Structure formats: structure tokens, C-alpha cells
Amino acid sequence: MLKPLIAGNWKMNTTVHQGVDLVIKLRELLKGADPDEVEVVLAPPFTSIHHISHIIADSHIRLCGQNLHWEKGGAYTGEVSADMLISVGCRYVIIGHSERRELFKETDEMVNKKVLAALKAGLRPIICVGETLDERELGKTISKVQLQIKKALSGLAGGALKDIAIAYEPIWAIGTGRTATPQMAEEVHNALRELLFELYDTDSVKSTRVIYGGSVKPDNIDSLMAQPNIDGALVGGASLKAEDFARIVKFRHL
Ligand code: 13P
Questions:
Q1: What pLDDT is attached to residue 61?
Q2: Of 64, 17, 61, residue with least CA distance to 40
Q3: Which atom of ligand 1 lies at the shortest distance from residue 128's CA?
Q4: Mean pLDDT over residues 57-62, rounded?
Q5: 235, 239, 248: which to mutate for ligand 1, most atoms within 8 A of CB?
Q6: Distance, CA 56 to ligand 1 centroid (Å)?
Q7: Is there a domain that residue 39 lies in?
Q8: What is the CATH number of the domain that holds 221?
Q9: Whose CA is closest to 108, among 72, 146, 137?
């Protein structure tokens, strides 16, 4: 059984002070949570990560970048490298979020370069995939997400899979309050795992977590986590409320 991964993606929200307040509350609320039961990861804006790393130093909460550049350094104004993220305490990085793909024109090739660079530097990628509403209605969901993953993992050996999480985030469910039903999510997670079984050895695939994102809330986390192929959640809006995120971390086994 894989240890579930619950990650909060704060997106472009919170000043340093707001972020610090939020983490102080969260640290208190999560004091009783068993680190062997669930892995808790936060992806604050870059500007807050260093401050927050001090606050969570004695907790089991881990830090995550929301993005990175694949180069190690140089003339790339506005970008952040894997080594920079590691230097402020990150162990994870979100790669290929649909907001980056849609608003900032990130391609599958760029996602692949980022995945390879992150792993090489020792960061664990959380690779996001997902379909638009049009693609879902046209029956293209599975082929879209499978192709995104095939391209994201291009050139990667099976041994690296244990350090990777895949986040299935249907674009129509992000920030809309419309969640995929647990059955809809399970179908896609299962298809992603089947693809991994085609590409890699069984042991490697069994070590990869496939998590769900898209309007995850305290009232739907339990039924999502009851699905056999849902290994955690990538939470946007609800991760900005300490009580809600803490309840999501403490999901109940149905
Ligand atoms: P919401 O939980 O706000 O729908 O966002 C999901 C998401 O994009 C997490 O990366």
C-alpha cells in the first residue's frame, strides 16, 4: 500500500505574512496526524518558501515548488532552478500544471525537460495532466492524459518512478466547484496506471502515486480516497483554509 500524498497548491496567493499565519495554524491542526499514514506537502509561492521552511522544520510537512526551469542557471529572467528550490528546503516540485500549460504555453516537451532536470537535482516531480471539458465530451480524456504522461516521462528509466507522483486534474474541475465523481477519477487513474504497466516493470509502477486534483474539499475527500487507484490529492482553494486542508489530510477511510 502506497503512503497517500496530500499536497496543497497555493498558486499565486498569500504574502509572506499570510503564508506564515496559515502554516502556523496548519502545524497546530496537524499535530496529531501520523506521518506514517500520510505525506503532507505544501507548495507556497516562491517568495514565502524560505520563511515557511523555518516554521515547519520540526514537523512532517514537506515543501514543494510550483514550477521550475530545466536549466541550472543563467540568463532566464523570472525563472527558478531545481537547485534554488532545494536550497530553500523543497523536496517536491509541481510540473505541467494546466494553468502553466494553458496560460503560459508550456508544452509537453518543456514538461519533459523539467521532469528530467528535477529528478537529476533530487527533487520529486508531481506531474499534472488533465483534459478540457470539450475533450471529455468528445471521449478523448484517456488518450489525452496517457499521451501527456508518455511525453512527460520520455527518456526516463523505471527506477525513477518511485520519486514521481502523477496528478490527474481535469481542467473543468479546477476552481469550479465541479469535482469529477470518484468513479470518473478512478477510471482515469486506472488508465494512467495501465499505461505505466505497458511502459515499465511492475515494481516500479507499484511505487508511483497517482493523485487527484480539482475542487477537492473536506466533503468529497473521503469518497475520492476510497477508490483503489487514488493515492492522494492535489488541493488548490481548500488548501488556503487551514481547517479545510487539515480535514483533507485527515481523510477517513471508508
Ligand atoms: P482547486 O482545488 O481550487 O480546484 O484547484 C485544483 C488545482 O489546480 C490544484 O493544483
A1: 96
A2: 61
A3: 10
A4: 94
A5: 235
A6: 23
A7: yes
A8: 3.20.20.70
A9: 146
Q: How far is the CA of 75 from the centre of ligand 1 (A)?
A: 31
Specify the pLDDT at position 140.
Answer: 98
Does residue 117 register a pLDDT over 80?
yes
Pocket of ligand 1 (CB under 6 A): 9, 97, 169, 174-175, 213-216, 234-238
Answer whether residue 254 is part of any domain: no
Distance from residue 185's CA to the centre of ligand 1 (Å): 14
Closest to 60 in 3D by CA, of 31, 92, 89 = 31
Q: What are the tens digits of pLDDT across the range 209-245?
A: 999 999 999 999 999 999 999 999 999 999 999 999 9
Amino acid at 85: L
User: Residue 101's pLDDT is what?
Assistant: 98
Q: Could you list the residue range(s) of the whole structural domain that residue 89 is in?
A: 5-249
Residue 72, all three cell numbers: 541550472
Domain-embedded: residue 236: yes
Closest CA to 14 of 4, 5, 26: 26
Confidence check: pLDDT of 177 > 90: no
Give the number of domains in the chain.
1
CB 64 within 8 A of CB 90: yes
Residue 165, number of CB atoms within 10 A of its CB: 24
* Length of the chain (residues): 254
Residue 18 lies in a domain: yes
What is the rounded average pLDDT of the residues 23-31? 96
Residue 254 has pLDDT above 80, yes or no: no
Q: With contact defined as beta carbons under 8 Å apart, do 63 and 89 qualify?
A: yes
Catalytically active residues, by annotation: 97, 169
Q: What is the dihedral of CA 181, 92, 140, 191, to 10 degrees?
A: -70
pLDDT of residue 1: 76
